[in-house]
Amino acid sequence: MVTDTQEDPSDAIFLSAGDTALVIQYGETVDPEVNRRVRMLTAALAESAPEGIVDLVPTMRSLMIHYDPLVLSRARLVEVVRPLLEARPDLNQTTRRWRIPVCYEGECAPDLEAVAEATGLSPEEVVRQHCGVDQEVFMMGFLPGFPYLGLLPEIFDLPRRLEPRVKVPPRSISVAARQTTIYTVDSPGGWHLIGRTPVDFYNPARAEPILVAAGDRVRFEPVPLDEYHATRRAVEAGSYEIRCDQ
Amino acid sequence: MNLTVQDFGRPRHQHLGVPVSGVLDPTALRLANALVGNPGGTEALEIRMMGPTLEVEAGSVRVALTGTRAPLEVLGEETIALPAHQSVSLTRGQRFRVGALPDGATAILAVEGGFALPQIYGSRSTYGRAGIGGFQGRALAEGDAIPLRLEEAPSRGEVRLDDGYLDERGPFRVILGPQRDFFTEAAITTFLSNAYTVTREADRMGMRLDGPVLTHARGYNIVSDGIVTGAVQVPGNGLPIVLLADHQTTGGYPKLGAVISADIPRLGRLRPGDEIRFEEVTVEAAEAAIRAREAELRRLIDVMIPAGAWLDEAALYRENLISGIVRETDLAS
Fold this sequence. Notes:
The complex is a heterodimer.
Chain A lengths: L12 E5 L3 E5 L6 H17 L4 E6 L3 E6 L6 H8 L15 E6 L9 H8 L3 H9 L3 E6 L6 E4 L14 E4 L3 E5 L2 E4 L4 E3 L2 E5 L20 E6 L2 H13 L5 E3 L1
Parallel strand pairs in A: 5-13
Antiparallel strand pairs in A: 1-2, 2-4, 3-4, 5-14, 6-7, 6-13, 7-10, 8-11, 9-10, 9-12
Chain B lengths: L2 E4 L19 H10 L8 E5 L4 E3 L4 E7 L5 E4 L4 E3 L4 E5 L3 E3 L8 E6 L46 E3 L11 E5 L8 H9 L2 E8 L2 E5 L14 E2 L4 E3 L7 E3 L6 E2 L3 E5 L4 H5 L6 E2 L1 E3 L2 H20 L2 E3 L5 H7 L8 H5 L1
């Protein structure tokens, strides 16, 4: 008999999301180590690929396993997952590292001044800190191709804007809660816009419309406004090659 | 008019933030496709609230309407009302329509062979918010020409099937969680013992319900986690929202429970003003229910019975008139 919540030696809790998804929850906070555990279980399950699993959706602190109850029962799925909780696959093997140009100037960065003020740093220093580290894609969600990246230095532990924008332009780079997100289609948004990239993180015309996935790393590289425009023209002409270290 | 191309959606790409989309009523899609001789998950037209008027621009088509008891009306000098849940063959130039749905929020119009449209992430379902899939990533509008895969519908007898599934009643079965602990025990009791009403704020992403407020025990924000179709999320105002096919893949509101997969088709047919009650069941009971639903669908399809071809009696009558008397439209063709 499978019960709704069970304590497990590895601290993972099993929860139900209807009869078509099982949630393995490692925590309830934004913590890169917890996210790493989630992504390890995701990788281990992806490799064993039991029949009946439809999709694996890692989030900051839990993995949602979508499955077909006509093919795979909850009891059987739990049996499959349990031994994998201890798996520690090498995540670096399959991840990609993207190098993404971002313009942090003028109309590309409407909230940069406000963020600088809130943090007590100069806008240049805010940009330096944003570009200074590789950021990991913790999860995808909210919109098609929309990544949550981090973890940023403590100064970026900002709340959302008091008034969300009704419409955030696509390819906007935004920050809040020590994370970066990238808007892929027109959308309302409450995070702080500190830059814009000429690269499409979502392009329906591309063979692979969505660029990144959970576990990828991204390094943002600052470019001046004229280079942003030139690169954008190249992207639209199909002549720009997105830089990726495997 | 609210019309989109939908199939069973793209459930394998949620990890990229892509919603599943697909039909609100999977039963209706299975049955409509069976009636026209398609594989069960072939894309079809999903009608919401009010149906379209369509003109046949292929040599011939075979169509079927399900999910409703609204008639399929063939237009001409006289309008001929054909019943739903029956395959119908039509020829070039014929116009037909489905009007306002009298009995539910959604219906399916399937055509034999489906549509010659590209797949995006393995599906022809439409996700309008991001312009993905279907017909140019959007709802269909007047003047749109939807390409078909078949130029002629194969000649064979028509079939019909039982529409009794539309009469299913009773509470919607839910499994509690994953944020059951974000609600007081009193809130859970309230949720399971009161009727809620579907408000006008209902679309393919979800339905806002009206009714007794549900009290949170630990606040109403969670670190975003995954979401299933049928999930019941409760934001700060304490009123539940039941999530449907176009729901976002992750979200930050607590979810009290989720409607089981066997009850999703009936959920999709709910309209503003409809009453909804919930009943808690176990995972095992939900699994038995989906197996039973699957067996019932197979049985309904197995026992499809021959239906007579419809007769355009008015056209027959006209063709028998003596020469020299023509219809206005004959001059145009």
